[in-house]
Amino acid sequence: MALRELSSLEKSLGLKKPKKYSTQGDNKVPVLQNNNGPSLTGLVTIATHLVQEANRSELLGSSAEQRALVQQWLEYRVTKLDNCPKEDIKTIFKDLNLYLEDKVYLAGNNFTLADTLMYYGIHHIMVDLAVQEKEKWANVTRWFDHVQHYPGVRHHLPPVVVLRNRFYPSGHH
Amino acid sequence: MATLYSPPDFWRSYPILISAQYSGAQITMVPSLPDFKGEDSQETDHLSKFPFRKVPAFEENGFQIQEATAIANYVAGDVLRGAGPQDQALVQQWVNLAEGEIIPSMTTWVYPIMGVAAYSDKACEKAKEVLLGVLSVLNQHLLPRTFLVGDTVTLADISVACALLLLFTQVMEPSMRQLYLNVTRWFCTCVHQPQFRTVLGDVILCKTASPGKLDGKPASTEIIKNQQQEVRSLSEVEVQQVEVHKQQEGVQQVEQQEQQVEQQQEEQQEQQQEQQQEQQQEDGLDPTEEAVAAEPKAKDPFASLPKSTFVLDEFKRTYSNEDTLTVALPYLWKKLDREGWSLWYSEYKYPSELGQVFMSCNLITGMFQRLDRLRKHAFASIALLGTDGDSSISGVWLLRGQQLAFELCEDWQADYESYSWRKLDPESEETCTLVREYLSWQGDFKHVGKSFNQAKIFK
User: Fold this and answer.
1) Which ipTM was obtained for this model?
2) Please, which residues bridge with residue B387 across strands?
3) Do B146 and A102 touch (CB under 8 A)?
4) What are phi and psi of B277, to 5 degrees?
5) CB-based contact B145 A101, cutoff 8 Å
6) Looking at the partner chain, which of B144, B185, B188 has a beta carbon nearest the beta carbon of A141?
7) Contact at 8 Å (CB) between B388 and B454?
8) What tens digit of pLDDT does each residue of B172-186 get?
9) Which of A96, A121, B415, B422 lies at a 20 to 30 A Cα distance from B32?
């Protein structure tokens, strides 16, 4: 999965020449094979590298604070969200929903790599959510919908249908 | 070449300028109408390019438009108008809501609080009802949406955000924003977009509810009378100052163009007189002033100073988050770069004119707003000491450089002449006491002889 994600990221960054990847170990950690340098290991490392290669460093944050927040969410993606046991998904959604209550983007006031990678990472969960659940996690759903409509981001993933008019009466959360 | 006739930093022109940032339209600002002959004169009307005699007005190669929304629509690119007929109609819907519902009610509610219009109980209640209704609808609408229409910023967001600007900066203090979290999230995202920021600068949300702020309601009719007097004297002061500044500039203009604020007739007449004066004042700008006004952004007046080791933001954070006496003050004295920064004591020169406490508070917050661009280079705590009818305003300032910073930039001089200034010796015992009392909001304030009432922080 991580490999398709990275190639989508390449496309959304406008990188022309596709990279060569392999995977490592049981968890299929991605490895970027560099022709003229050491290979790079790990989703976050490689994604950060791609952003820099594309000269889009604003996606990593444009202030010290925003850069730290981007890193925080990239770390969250690989340590908390990936391989998360089913019973913990609810906690993750609860936390994210609260966090996104007063925010449009995960880090700062504009779109960053944190949004892209969190979107990629949470997509398989969102696909399976019922309409009612999407309404329950209204802030996550809004963020997700915004990111999937963000120019050039979606690529390999099917769109998730989000209704913007409520079906169920509010007040149960 | 496109020309926008509008005073600089006039909030009615913000949607136009922000739209231009998105579409890339090049606009030159000219501060007043070309053929304006004063409020009395009817003679030029039928000949005039702009018979409505309103700013903002717009002209491009002989093509003229009046009315802010029409101009914004013209200047906005296709992206801002919405994709497809449905989205375009929705954009129109929100723009109309901003013009027809939000702006009239917002001005009725906010202007009295800012001390630039008379307060009317009935009108204000009605306005609040309308606005809170609109905010609820917006809040619902924005729960599942990032922007008002579609997935990107449109003219709808620009219009509505600008219409709510004064509400967010003047009235909606944190607890009220809690009630409209989705609106607040959307508003903050909008004003942080680079295109908004270029025009609006840093938008500082309202920090605390001062008396009369949440409901804008003075206690008795007597106070209303006082307030009206206060309004008048404020306006007179402004007329005397050639300087025209941000918020009030916009406010006066709008009063000229829309007299929707319900007022007592007497008050209206007074205001009309003032407006004439102001308009004449404005028309009297000489070419140099016009050129200065047309310049996009002033240079940093502190650019020539050597870099300082004292990081103001860090101090402000420490002051806001930590205990003042045990952490923030020791931090200040330890880190303060005595060469790069100076401490000042200021006192309002005309304490006998201060009436109600909340009016004095507005005086202080108004000054802070006009000094907005100084925030990176200054910190102050200004205290109101005493009670209604027997009060004084004084405070301590931490300013970049050794000079009184207000002298560096004309924009900052609006209020400083109303204060006496004394430079403080950072090593002296007296300074230590003053700084402690004003920053911790406690102590005897012996030098004034009045007890602490409340204070505002400029940061």
Assistant:
1) 0.80
2) B390
3) no
4) -60, -45
5) no
6) B144
7) no
8) 989 989 999 999 999
9) B415
